[in-house]
Amino acid sequence: MKVTRSMFRAYRQKDAHETAERNERRKLPERARRDARMLARIKEDSLPYTPEVMSWLSRKLDKPASKITQDDVNKLKA
Q: How far apart are alpha carbons 6 and 53 in whole angstroms?
């Protein structure tokens, strides 16, 4: 049987899929801890936040960091 590029690609895709599933289970608790930590930071302070917090807010609000207002943050706090 001749092994072709498409077979190698299929093996790689299958392996990548299995790895992603395994990593997702590991990352869920890590994401929950990060969310709790970031919410605590935004509750005790106001804009401007550190770059780490702004990056997290940007992902949560689906907005560029430069467009985030205090009103957006207040809605997320609630």
A: 43
Instruction: Give the number of other CB atoms < 10 A from CB of residue 41.
Output: 15
Calculate the alpha carbon distances from 39 to 30, 47, 57, 74 in Å. Answer: 14, 13, 9, 11
Q: Look up residue 14 and give its DSSP letter.
A: H
Rounded (10°) angle between helices 70-77 and 5-44: 90
Q: How far apart are CA 39 and CA 43, in angstroms?
A: 6
The angle at the Cα of 77, spanning 73 to 78, to the nearest 5 degrees, equals 125
Local confidence pLDDT in tens for the 78 residues of the chain:
677 899 999 999 999 999 999 999 999 999 999 999 999 999 888 888 999 999 999 999 999 999 999 999 999 888
CB of 42 closer than 8 Å to CB of 72: no
